[in-house]
């Protein structure tokens, strides 16, 4: 089992999740974050930390979201670990409003 | 004590046998527990729970929960029960026990408990006073930690050792025999932080676990050979004169003898025993001795083989040899429970034990019940609480045979009908943590915590402390021990006037939930910078003043007599496993594979292994194998395989991984036998032989064979 970062991270990249992760399992590029499934311990601490509800436990994914399992695994293996909170993307607040999560 | 609020947040603490003892916030709405979260301000919990506890609220409402006392109405083990009243349950127990006591004496009754709950009122020692008063057999509870406790106390005394929070100051960290990201997840961030600050993290484990993958260096070791590695490190440290001679001279005992012993363990010899290249042993020793502060996290897994106790002895000698204790963040951590001023004598009342009362070790349960131990009087009644031996104890088949005995009167206090409870004649329903008051015992950090009831238990479910009050009354015990309230007991069970608890009272804990005990702060604490070891000599005893095996009294109702007592070498040594290809080649012809059975990630021992979300996260009973061993047996990932030896067998789904070394198999502990393909689980193959110290189990010291079976 693992947790995955789904579509809502795109254009947001709030990175609050990395501050609560006990195992430093978040990797990222300029656009968004991904979880390394070999490192995630399924504690779910990151789920409430995400302002846009982007993180889900694998078996809570809807059919459409299942593609994120593979995307997270592949991307995480090539990208650096993000260990500390970074400024969100400039588009984050607009994106959050668009998602109705303000 | 019932819950006082209808809606709001109540402070609590995790009930489990885990070093993390998290601070909880119970969220209550309309008298219902809706969520349990971790306290953000607790330095260890840091607002997080874990895969096991993150949906703890719903656990309280599991529809399978036992809600009334039950009596057996079908054959033993058939799971046929009918509800009865507490009055009927208590009078049945009373009449049965009075009959057994009249015919066989009190020692024909044996309690069986471990850390299914880790509270002061409801945990390990919750029944000790009752059974001591009853005159039962004293049960020696050595499921876990007992071998380590004996070895640690022989070496450094009952010291709390290195604080897990001080690990952030270390520059060299050895995690020895512990998969921290599964079993000490709230300790791991301190190591991650040290690593980010430049510390090198080394994990010593037979398996490339998730923890080992996160380390800078994974040292893969043959199971049960840790003592040889520690002695090999000493050999190098002494030969290359990396010893802190000043520290050794002032604060240790027996250096010359240790030097002589360590000289026998050359890197080449140790390489042959451990499977670790000699160069790596040399590098590990050099780096450890020359990168201060150097910290060791000792895992409980080390004790789970014949030489496990001596291995802990050897490892615990290492920090003194290099003077690691001089530094904040230097030294070793085993478990800091000894820092807490708990009045175990007041809890357990060893003064009630009749002189000459026998001791039966709980890991010998099968042998005790089946007559193999030739006990006189035989065990005629078994009372199980806080434990599930059909999953967790070795020699599963033997225990099942014992529990099937028609003449054995078995009472089990439980939350669910486990594989042990299914054999009961009477089942008593327990309260859950959100429903009861307790001060939690902690073995992984230095905070005392109060768990307050957030909701009321179902009407017939009672905390263990109340169950023993009722049993005491039923047995007509008139002692005022059982006249006290839970709150009064907690007042009596700790030395609230001790320096460690200065400024902390039950009343303050009611407000704060938890408090750090006064034993030094993480950025200052150096408990043995100037010796101050709590041994008879006051020094770190390389050569121990103890020469006979013993179990630390807290694991045996505080009983001092009838200790195992066989001679033990006062110097650390490497004791080879009972069962390995090297030590038992005859056995290995038939059963050529070693097996280790670490705790499951999503279960807490066998707890939660009956709940669907946790089963989904953990997956079915899986047998992990190296590709070479799998290929030789035409086994592929997904094959159904049988793991077996002369003691029993269990089936599982094969998973082929190179995280294991060739010749080693791994299967996680905790799956309920009744939910597996074969109706048996990993302890069906475990031997009930003991570790050489503290009567610990030898779960990682077993040979097996694996074969493909038709699915």
Automatic annotation (TrEMBL), chain A:
One of its GO terms (molecular function) is 3 iron, 4 sulfur cluster binding. The keyword Aminoacyl-tRNA synthetase does not apply. Residues 31-60 form the 4Fe-4S ferredoxin-type domain. Its cofactor is [4Fe-4S] cluster; [3Fe-4S] cluster. Residues 79-102 are annotated as: Disordered. Keywords: 3Fe-4S, 4Fe-4S, Electron transport, Iron, Iron-sulfur, Metal-binding, Repeat, Transport. Coiled coil: none annotated. Residues 93-102 have a biased composition (Basic and acidic residues). It comes from the Bacteria. PROSITE patterns: 4FE4S_FER_1 (PS00198), 4FE4S_FER_2 (PS51379). This is Ferredoxin.
Automatic annotation (TrEMBL), chain B:
This is Molybdopterin oxidoreductase. Keywords: Iron, Iron-sulfur, Metal-binding. Belongs to the prokaryotic molybdopterin-containing oxidoreductase family. GO terms for molecular function: iron-sulfur cluster binding; metal ion binding; molybdopterin cofactor binding; oxidoreductase activity. InterPro entries: Asp_de-COase-like_dom_sf (IPR009010), MoPterin_dinucl-bd_dom (IPR006657), Mopterin_OxRdtase (IPR006656), Mopterin_OxRdtase_4Fe-4S_dom (IPR006963), Prok_Mopterin_Oxidored (IPR050612). CDD domains: MopB_3 (cd02766). SMART domains: Molybdop_Fe4S4. Residues 7-64 form the 4Fe-4S Mo/W bis-MGD-type domain. Coiled coil: none annotated. It comes from Hansschlegelia plantiphila.
